TrEMBL record:
UniProt similarity note: Belongs to the KhpB RNA-binding protein family.
NCBIfam families to which the protein is assigned, alphabetical: Jag_EloR
Predominant cellular place of this UniProt entry's protein: cytoplasm
Compartments it resides in: Cytoplasm
Native source organism of the sequence: Paenibacillus agricola
Cited function: A probable RNA chaperone. Forms a complex with KhpA which binds to cellular RNA and controls its expression. Plays a role in peptidoglycan (PG) homeostasis and cell length regulation.
Entry-linked SUPFAM superfamilies: R3H domain (SSF82708)
Gene3D superfamilies noted in UniProt: 3.30.300.20, probable RNA-binding protein from clostridium symbiosum atcc 14940, R3H-like domain
UniProt-recorded name of the protein: RNA-binding protein KhpB
HAMAP family per UniProt: KhpB
UniProt subunit comment: Forms a complex with KhpA.
Amino acid sequence: MKKLLVTGKSIEEAVKNGLRQWNTTEDRVKIHVLEQPSRGLFGFIGTRDAKVELELIPDAVEETIYFLQDVFRTMRLEVRIEKKIDKENMELHLYGSDLGMLIGRRGQTLDALQYLMNIVANRYSTTHMRIVLDAENFRERRQKTLEELADRLAERVIRTKKEVILEPMSPQERKVIHAQLQEHPKVRTFSRGEEPNRRVVIVLR
């Protein structure tokens, strides 16, 4: 936990001095008053400043970014991380060269990094967080690929009148298949098996 010892002629001044040093706001710190200010004899002999300890409250997203930076530093990769926040989602986007090794086969490495990253984020968050990790717009490209796959396999089921069982997928990828065929008039989907070998099954309605 990051802490800072600061002084000032008043508690308020000491706190402001600390916030200025950290370039942060009061809602990001816990304030522990160690010594009250004292005016001393005749108002100036033996005066004593206020002494305050500030404790920085960790920010879940910042700690997550620090975690990723440590991982990339260990891997000797130069990666730029950008935050993208809207009302519903928090995303971290990775930019750099040779990001293929961070994506992995069908995004498996990216999914593993995202899983670890969310463990870190929720360690520092008071509410449950889910942060999406993306690189080179892989998530968007993968979603489009899965949607096209779902449509092709649905046509096969209709043509052959036989069920199709897909290869094991992550919960997020299975969700894409289910969503794509949810309103299909002739086929339906369900999942079969246990993680990590759970698969989507497409059958006639």
